[in-house]
Amino acid sequence: MTDLSGRVALVTGGTRGIGLATAKALAEAGATVVLTGRDESRAKEAAAAAGASAGLALDVTDAKAVSTLVRGVAKEHGKLDIVVANAGIMEDALLGMIKEDLVDTTLSTNVAGTLHTVQAAARAMMRKKTGAIVVLASIVGEYGSAGQTVYAASKAAVANIARSAAKELGRSGIRVNAVAPGVIDTDLTAGLAEDAKADNIARTPLARLGAAEDVAKAIRFLVSDEASFVTGQVLGVDGGLVL
Ligand code: NAI
């Protein structure tokens, strides 16, 4: 089992789904984990459920709040080793139906929110010249998806935040990678029609939807020393769906 004892980790959007499973997986591997959620009481409840040391309120669209929180966590624990920029939203809209506020909320949460988190993480990790960051891309960001142009564009941007930050931060000992999940069974995909889920399963070589824990295990690998020479990668966690 991956050993993360002595590491300090931060997971955004950790109150449910992939974020909660990741917080749990990192805590089980021995890391001291801080998770965040938009609602403080839900963040505290999730922290207790995940075995995390704290649950804090954070909206990742607020750059100043992200910077203050990340600096505070690093100060309290003396360092910050791992950051998982997981918070994200998905709303479908066909091209003709895309409204400006959907563009704004999707880009400000998925792109700017991830960017704020990576920037703050890099600042906190730079001093110790070590750290691992993972961001949440998506297979649709790599291959596109009808009815998901805005979301797919946002996730393509997220993948390129990982690639660019990896190039910039490598010499500071900081690795940056992305995971690109397929269809994972969480609240985000709960609205998918049953026939769409069945169609995805039929096209997936591993013949099932993903679980949040499947993604959490891939993230745990990427932030661990097992991935010590891996940076700038976008790791598919999709059961082979895109093959
Ligand atoms: P989810 O909807 O279950 O959880 C998303 C989390 O992000 C929630 O805790 C939510 O409160 C938080 N969040 C949303 N906006 C926020 C904001 N402005 N500030 C702070 N927190 C915010 O979704 P799920 O499935 O766990 O997704 C996690 C990440 O994985 C997202 O970035 C999503 O785009 C990505 N992903 C999910 C896939 C899936 O099939 N479930 C597939 C590919 C990527």
Structure description:
47% of the residues lie in helices and 15% in strands. It has 243 residues and is of the alpha/beta class. The protein has one domain (8-234): Rossmann fold (3-Layer(aba) Sandwich). Strands 3-2-1-4-5-6-7 form a seven-stranded parallel beta sheet, sandwiched between helices. Helix 4 (100-126) links the parallel strand 4 and strand 5 (131-136). The longest helix is centred in the middle third of the chain and has 27 residues, at 100-126. It starts with 7 loop residues before the first strand and ends in a 6-residue tail after the last strand. The mean pLDDT is 98. Residues 7-182 form the Ketoreductase domain. GO terms for molecular function: oxidoreductase activity, acting on the CH-OH group of donors, NAD or NADP as acceptor.
Write the layout of secondary structure elements.
Layout: E1 8-11, H1 17-28, E2 32-37, H2 40-50, E3 54-57, H3 63-77, E4 82-85, H4 100-126, E5 131-136, H5 139-143, H6 149-169, E6 174-181, H7 194-203, H8 212-223, E7 234-237
Parallel strand pairs: 1-2, 1-4, 2-3, 4-5, 5-6, 6-7
Helix pairs in contact: 1-2, 1-8, 3-4, 4-6
The chain binds 1,4-dihydronicotinamide adenine dinucleotide (NAI).
